[in-house]
Design goal:
single chain, 9 helices, seven-stranded mixed β-sheet, elongated, alpha/beta
Length: about 350
């Protein structure tokens, strides 16, 4: 090996070692991460699918820049500042603490320790900075009263807040300092309708990216990022991840959409014609139970009633969906009751004829 080649190899090893020790300084931000970090919005959300776009890393980087008082894109308050990172559970909190340690552990105050079992501290986990800034890790299981006395500079919710009430309680803690609230999430494992409403109303700036090849290529580069083992997150990788995901969950789990959307068949074995078809004009024969089911919501289009016939005479029950009521507007319980009675009338049934 020539001296020049040996020096190049040594420099490459040194760069790789530095990237492992100081990953934040070597990150190539993806387009959605970059847009999120550049935004000066006081309430902002980075929304993507699971485990592909580094939404938590971008959010933690934003918190870190604010704690050190030097943000590469926007003006931030002078430190010291106090930030909260809100997690769904202690187990999730440990994972997020580990990510912050991996990302910026070398920037924290001298003597700061982290271990995978207890995080920064088992009872009161705090990541301190040399300038006096601190990041406190809290869980959404804490009662609102435990959060009500503090005044903070900002909060990051990693994954959906358990309730809007808890989100509002934490948001209030930032108001006195004109602080910031960040969210990084995939819309799953908790109700997200109210978050969607905030985003659509403009109260929350929403940065959303679908699992597409153009969203895998860092800003200023022409090739996609890779996994730690060197596997490129290219179109073939995307196709594999989508294929391994249950079809109804692809919109949310892969693409970070607000809700599961069914396009075409729900199940691959669903048959609309032929022998054993699921959709049929055949009426049930013999003795069946007539069952009325309700899913009563409080929003437009969420009041639903289903009339069905259930045949329990064989090993496996057979269910015929005979009719349905879907209210298109806001309705009262009286409106819903009248609609159900009308459904019974058009099927030549009376209320006493219902079995369940």
């Amino acid at each position: 090996m020539s001296i020049a080649l040996a020096q190049a190899a040594y420099a490459a090893r040194g760069l790789a070692d530095d990237a492992r020790a100081r990953p934040l300084e070597h990150i190539r931000w993806l387009p959605n991460q970059d847009r999120f970090l550049r935004s000066p919005a006081k309430r902002k959300l980075i929304r993507q699918g699971n485990q592909w776009g580094g939404k938590t890393w971008a959010a933690l980087a934003d918190v870190h820049y604010r704690c050190v008082g030097r943000h590469p894109y926007i003006n931030v308050p002078k430190p010291p500042v106090e930030w909260w990172v809100m997690c769904a559970s202690w187990q999730q909190s440990l994972a997020i603490q580990g990510k912050l340690w991996e990302l910026v552990g070398h920037h924290l105050a001298p003597g700061t320790r982290f271990d995978p079992k207890n995080g920064f501290h088992a009872n009161v986990p705090v990541a301190p900075y040399p300038n006096g800034s601190i990041v406190r890790f809290k869980t959404a299981r804490q009662h609102g009263l435990d959060l009500s006395s503090a005044t903070i500079d900002g909060a990051l919710w990693d994954e959906p807040p358990r309730s809007r009430r808890l989100y509002e309680e934490v948001q209030k803690r930032t108001q006195k300092r004109n602080g910031t609230v960040l969210l990084s999430l995939t819309p799953v494992n908790a109700p997200c309708d109210w978050i969607k409403e905030l985003a659509e109303a403009g109260s929350l700036t929403d940065f959303h990216a679908r699992m597409l090849i153009e969203n895998m290529i860092p800003v200023g580069y022409s090739t996609p990022i890779t996994l730690r083992d060197g596997t490129p997150q290219d179109q073939a990788w995307i196709d594999t991840i989508v294929a391994e995901t249950w079809d109804p969950e692809v919109p949310v789990v892969c693409h970070g959409e607000w809700e599961v959307r069914i396009e075409g068949r729900v199940f691959s074995a669903f048959r609309s014609s032929g022998d054993g078809a699921h959709v049929t004009t055949e009426r049930p024969r013999g003795e069946v139970e007539l069952v009325l089911g309700f899913d009563h919501g409080t929003r437009v289009g969420k009041q639903v009633a289903i009339l069905s016939a259930v045949d329990t005479s064989s090993t496996h029950d057979r269910i015929w969906v005979l009719d349905e009521v879907v209210q298109p507007d806001n309705t009262t319980t009286d409106d819903d009751a009248l609609a159900v009675l009308e459904m019974l009338r058009r099927n030549r049934l009376k209320w006493p004829q219902l079995d369940r």
